Amino acid sequence: MFTYLDPAVRERLVAEGKLIRIDREGRKLDPDEQGGGQAISILGPIPLPLQSGRLRLTVTWYACVRNTELSKVQELADQLRAQHTQSLFANLASSMAVNCVLIVGDPDAWTNPLIRVHSSCLTGDVFGSERCECGPQLQHALAAIADDEQGGMVVYMSGHEGRGIGLWAKAATYLLQDAGENTYQANRSLGLPDDSRDFSDAATLIRHFYGVKPFRLLTNNPKKLDDLAAHGLKDVTPVKHVIGVTEANRRYLEAKKGWGHRLDPEDLDEAPGES
Predict the structure, then answer these.
(1) Less crowded by CB within 10 Å, the N or C end of the chain?
(2) Annotated active-site residue in 131, 197, 207, 216
(3) CATH label of the domain that carries residue 233
(4) Is the pLDDT of residue 128 over 50?
(5) Active-site residue, 6 included
């Protein structure tokens, strides 16, 4: 079942092949086929012109969400339609974590594309915060993929804010970090795991759009490689992804290095012109 779109619009998009479901192996499901709670619904392709810094390009955007989350929203949407309470439809957005896939090039022609699995970071990606390097990493990934002869894709995981703890808890960890704790110590002080991100949906989306074939992954994080390998993506070559180092985030990056991220001492030096 596809939600929370108007049923007539939903049927039209399904007929046009612009609204599909895939199972955990990345296989496209028939409209009436049961895929279970782990199935993912995908809207697209959608041409999306981007401007990121000096970079201008058009990517192909797909919006992706788990069926378990959609089913909860469907129930509320049906209630609102029955009550003619259109003003409350905005509340539906808060019930779903919609991940995104941005594709550069033709996946059918790829043999070893460049891929970035990027965890959402409102403060870095949107506000440009220098407490982390997330914003520059996202911009650099898009530029690197656009320049790569193979092309590739960004899988943007919108439910990963604060390594999976959410924006509210992340704000609390910032206060604890300002009091002297590092990013992992702050999570533990709140009774939260160091990193609770789940990359299984990212693996499913890569399998759907590309398959179980070799690719290069922009990452410094061995956990991400291990998680993707656990879901069948084992032929992955990590590509170091160090960008956006400043005085404001060096202590944060040192904590990540201590936690296991592939960072060398020289990686934590500021690049010329950065501060």
Answers:
(1) C
(2) 197
(3) 3.40.50.10990
(4) yes
(5) no
